[in-house]
Amino acid sequence: MLLLLKRQRFFLRFFLPVVLAVLVGMGFDYAVQQHTQTVQRKALQSQEKDIQVAAKAEAISRKLLEIKLRLTQTLTASKYREVDEAMAYQLHGLIVDEMAALEKELTALTTAHDFSHVSTLYPAALRAFQEFRQFALMSSDQMAIDQSAAGEHLISATAYYGAFALRMGDIAKTLMDHAIENAASTRNQLQEFDRHMRLYSTLAALVFLALWFVLSRSTSRQLDRPNAILQKLSRGESGLSDYKTFSPIKAMAARKGTLIGDMANAVPAFQKTQDERRLALAELHEREELHANIISQAPIGIVVLDMQTLQFVSFNDATYESLGYTREEFSQMSLYDLQLTRTEARSMKSSSAFRPGAAWTSRPSGVTRPATSATSGYRCAPCTCMTATA
How far apart are the C-alpha atoms of 63 and 224, rounded to whole Å? Predict the structure, then answer.
C-alpha cells in the first residue's frame, strides 16, 4: 500500500489539493447556509412573538370594546326605563367577571416577549383600564338604583374606552414597529454577512490559486530540468557537464519509486548510452579513416563496383593511373566502358579471385557480371575490383 501511494505521489500531489479545496468549499458553504438559516430562524421567531404580543393587546382592546358596547346598549335601554333591577345586577356580575379575566391578560403582558420595548407605555394603559373598569362597575351598579344617570354614564363610557383603546393601540403599534425593525435589521445583518462571506471566499480562492501556482511552478521546474537535459542529449550535446546541472538531477534521482525520480534516473542512463554511442562512432570513424588511408596508399588499383549499374563507386589513385586515365575521366566510366572481350570475361570468371558459387550472365555488349547481390572481389588487368550492392 505504501509503495502504491509512493508511486502515485505525483498524481496525489495535484489531486489532493483539488479534493481538499472542494471539501473546504463545501464545508464553507454548509457553514454559511447554517448561519444564515439560524439568523433567519431567530429573526422569524422574534417577529412571531412580537406579532403574538401585539395580537394579545389587540384582543384585550377588542374584548374591552365588547364590554363597552354591551354596557352602552344597557345604558341606552336604562335611559328609556327598559332595564329592571334583575337585568342590571346580571350585567354588573358579568362585567365583574370579564374585567377580572381581562386584568389577568393585561398583567400577563408584562412577561411577554420584548416587553421592555413597551414598558414605558404599559403603566398608562393599565391606568386607563382600571379607570374604565371602575366606571363600568359603578355605572352598572347604579343602573338599578338611579336610571336617570344613564345618559351621563353613556357619554363617559366612550371617553373611558377611548383612552384605554388609545394606550393599547400604542402598545400594539410599538410591538409591530419592533417586528418590522427586527426584519430590517436581520436583512441588513444577512447582507453584511453575505458580503463578508463573499470577500472571504474570494480571498480563499486567491490563496488556493497562489498555492496551486507555486506547486505547479515547482513541479514544472522539476520536470523541465530533466526534459531540457534529455533534449540536449538527443541533439548530441553533453547534458551533465557542470555541477550545477548534475547536483539537482542527482537529488531528484534519489527519490526512488516516484515519477520525477524515474525521469531523473533516465537522464544519466541516456547520457551514458549517448557517450558510448559517441565513442563507438569516433572509433568507427578512426577505423574508416585508417581503411581509407590504406586503400588510397595501396600500390595496386582498388575499386568498389556497384553491382546494379556497374559504376565505379570509389577507387584509389593506382586504379586510373595504371590504366592511363585521369580521376575525372575514370569517375565517368563504368565496367562496360572498359570493353572487355568475352575471352577476358571467361578468364575473369574462371579466375580464382571470384567468390566460389557466383552465377554469371551475359550482357548485350558481351560483358558478363554476377547475377547475385553478394559482394565479391576479382582482379582485372592491373587492378582489384570489389563489387557492392547499391
Answer: 88
Which residue matches cell numbers 550535446? 237
Q: How far apart are the first and last CA of the chain?
A: 59
* Residues 330, 200 share a domain: no
Give the total number of structural domains in the chain: 2
**269 lies in some domain:** no
Q: Do residues 103 and 133 touch, judged by C-beta distance below 8 A? A: yes
CA 27 to chain centre: 15
The whole-model pTM stands at 0.48
DSSP readout, 325-357?
--HHHHHT-BTGGG---HHHHHHHHTSTTSPTT
Residue 128 contacts residue 148 (beta carbons within 8 Å): no
Tell me if 149 sits within 8 A of 142, measured CB to CB. Answer: yes
Residue 240 near residue 253, CB atoms below 8 Å: no
Domain range enclosing 367: 293-388
| The last residue of a domain, from among 211, 231, 257 | 211
Mind listing the pLDDT tens digit for each residue in 146-176? 666 666 777 788 888 888 889 888 988 888 8
Structural domain contains residue 230: no
- Which residues, in sequence order, are bridge partners of residue 301? 383
pLDDT computed for residue 50 by the predictor = 83
* Residue where a domain stops, chosen among 153, 181, 211: 211
Q: Residue 323: what residue type?
A: L
